């Protein structure tokens, strides 16, 4: 197996996951979870550095709230094409949005829409962030 960066060249990864463990982390996507993407509208293709920097505290608050609630977790973000998307996975996208809505509406960048991929769906739905 390959070595881990920063460790001895003889160090190996024993398990199938990046940290070498044999078990998934709690934040690995569970089959059957809903996906909720909160899409923010940027002024240009990638937004300004201050826009991006200002979104980190919003994401941190969302992580804390979703972790504490047990409803789901923040999986990451995607920036480009004039949009900043924050992706969540959880058992119930509506309950997640009810939890996250007050946090996301404090963002310095306006929310454009929600993209929803309910479990078992073959396509996404677009929902207003004000619903």
Number of helices: 2
- What percent of the residues sit in helical stretches (DSSP H or I)? 25-40%
Largest beta-sheet details: 5 strands, antiparallel
The total strand number stands at: 5
What gyration radius follows from the Cα positions, in whole Å? 17 Å
Q: How far is it from the N-terminal to the C-terminal residue, by CA?
A: 50 Å
The order of strands across the largest sheet is: 2-3-1-4-5
Round the mean pLDDT to the nearest integer and report it: 81
- The SSE order reads EHEEHEE
Keywords:
alpha+beta, single chain, disordered N terminus, about 130 residues, 5-stranded antiparallel sheet
Could you characterize what this model shows?
Helix content is 25%, strand content 27%. It contains two helices and five strands. A five-stranded antiparallel β-sheet has the order 2-3-1-4-5, covered by helices on one side. Strand 4 (111-117) and strand 5 (125-127) form a beta hairpin. The longest helix is centred in the middle third of the chain and has 21 residues, at 49-69.
Brief account:
With 131 residues, the chain is an alpha+beta fold. The chain has helices spanning 49-69, 93-104, and strands spanning 34-41, 72-80, 83-90, 111-117, 125-127.
Outline the secondary-structure elements.
Elements: E1 34-41, H1 49-69, E2 72-80, E3 83-90, H2 93-104, E4 111-117, E5 125-127
Antiparallel strand pairs: 1-3, 1-4, 2-3, 4-5
Helix pairs in contact: 1-2
